[in-house]
Design brief:
The protein is built from nine helices and twelve strands. A hairpin with a 5-residue loop joins strand 3 and strand 4. Helix 2 runs parallel beside helix 6. The chain starts with a helix and ends with a strand.
């Protein structure tokens, strides 16, 4: 068989294949989309690659130092995936192949629920936060809760579309969210107001029931003094002496026999430890729907 005859024969077989929808469907159903395509569609379903001005059409909707809640519209996501899968459909054959493969392509992009096998979540909500906190604390901890107080643990996406913008998406309806400093190390310092509340080293019998060593005392806080007018350098000896005096006056650093214990660097460290700061944002809910 000459090359020309063979070529014409292949062309005819291909035409016959395209002219037989049932045969085409059987053949295509036995083939899965390439992994690269499935990965790309999965990321697109998570809004990766979507221009930011499609997600936030106007900068005034997300001003500096703001947080804006949203609810994902699954119809919008479906239209997004449908549009991506419709690229280059210029003839009936391409459209036919697309219709046969549509279910597989949609399945590749589907976001799955944590509790329902291979099923999409009932709701996906989230927020944009634009703040200098985002670049300042790259390891921010976020914990979202629904209206009943249940923690929403299936985080769909959490990253930074830009240096100062955080995008967070989770399965369920967010009622409120806690944003915390990263608890990756010890934090020392005084309150932003300049006060320093003390903690119990030992617990006297006069303390409230259930008090444990390390709990905060209810006495008047210490007022640290500074070495410079910019309040950048503490007078450490003065602060330690003042702490020692207050603890002894309140029997909060005593031995079992009641005798005062020495105030060492260990006690000073305990008093200077600060818990991680957190802030809670509550979402506005009207008729059960999420509003920004």
């Amino acid at each position: 068989m000459s090359p020309l005859v063979k070529r014409n024969s292949n062309i005819q077989r291909f035409k016959d294949f395209l002219a037989n929808p049932e045969k085409m469907e059987k053949t295509l159903n036995d083939n899965d989309p390439p992994d690269e395509l499935k990965d790309w569609l999965k990321r697109l379903g998570l809004l990766h690659g979507v221009p930011f001005n499609y997600l936030v059409p106007n900068e005034k909707m997300l001003p500096n130092e703001s947080i804006r809640f949203f609810q994902v519209d699954f119809n919008w996501l479906y239209a997004l995936i449908e549009g991506a899968c419709s690229i280059s459909h210029i003839n009936e054959n391409e459209a036919l192949k697309k219709n046969i493969l549509a279910k597989k392509l949609q399945a590749a992009a589907q976001i799955n629920s944590k509790d329902k096998l291979n099923q999409p979540p009932d709701h996906i909500t989230g927020f944009f936060m634009r703040s200098q906190v985002v670049p300042g604390w790259p390891k921010l901890e976020l914990v979202a809760f629904d209206k009943s107080g249940k923690e929403l643990t299936n985080v769909i996406r959490m990253d930074r579309p830009s240096a100062s913008t955080l995008l967070y998406m989770v399965e369920g309806k967010i009622d409120h969210v806690y944003i915390r400093e990263p608890a990756v190390g010890l934090h020392f310092g005084i309150a932003i107001t300049g006060d320093k509340y003390l903690r119990y080293v030992t617990v006297p019998s006069t303390a409230p029931a259930g008090t444990k060593p390390g709990d905060q005392m209810t006495v008047k806080p210490e007022q640290p003094q500074f070495r410079d007018s910019d309040k950048r350098t503490l007078k450490v000896n003065q602060l330690a002496t003042s702490m020692d005096k207050t603890l002894h006056e309140n029997n909060a650093n005593n031995a079992p026999d009641g005798k005062p214990l020495a105030f060492t660097s260990a006690e000073f460290t305990l008093e200077m430890v600060e818990g991680t700061q957190e802030v809670m944002f509550k979402n506005k809910i009207t008729s059960g729907e999420i509003n920004g």
